[in-house]
Amino acid sequence: MAASNVLRDFIKKNFVSIKKVNPSTPILVRECSGIPPKIWARYEFGEEASVLVSDKTSDQVLKHIEELSLK
User: Fold this and answer.
1) Exposed, middle or buried, 37 (CB in 10 Å: 0-12/13-18/19+)?
2) Domain total of the chain
3) How far apart are CA 13 and CA 19, in angstroms?
4) Could you give one GO CC term from the UniProt record (predicted)?
5) 29-70 pLDDT, tens per residue?
6) CA-closest candidate to residue 35, choices 48, 19, 52, 21
7) Residue 28 burial (C-beta neighbours within 10 Å; 0-12, 13-18, 19+)
């Protein structure tokens, strides 16, 4: 899916550095055909949040990750 190319590239380029800075934060990457790309965050007490990142730039993806990490 072309809409997920930026997110796929973002993960390839940034996963290692993000994990080094956040070693205790679990990060799960799932690939699935035909599903719009989303970033999910799970918090205490079962709270979840997600952001649809279809056709976003790498900078926008990073901004969404930062916003989710501040909740």
Assistant:
1) buried
2) 1
3) 12
4) mitochondrial inner membrane
5) 888 888 899 999 999 999 999 999 998 899 999 999 999 988
6) 52
7) exposed
The domain containing residue 55 runs over which residues? 2-70
Tokens 């989303």, located at residue: 38
What is the pLDDT at residue 1?
65
Q: What pTM, to 2 d.p., does this model score? A: 0.80
Given a contact cutoff of 8 angstroms between Cβ atoms, the answer to whether 37 and 54 are in contact is yes
Report the pLDDT value the prediction gives residue 16, as an integer from 0 to 100: 93
- Give dist(CA 43, CA 7) in Å, integer: 22
| Domain CATH number, residue 25 | 3.40.30.10
The count of residues in the chain is 71
Gap between the terminal Cα atoms of the chain: 29
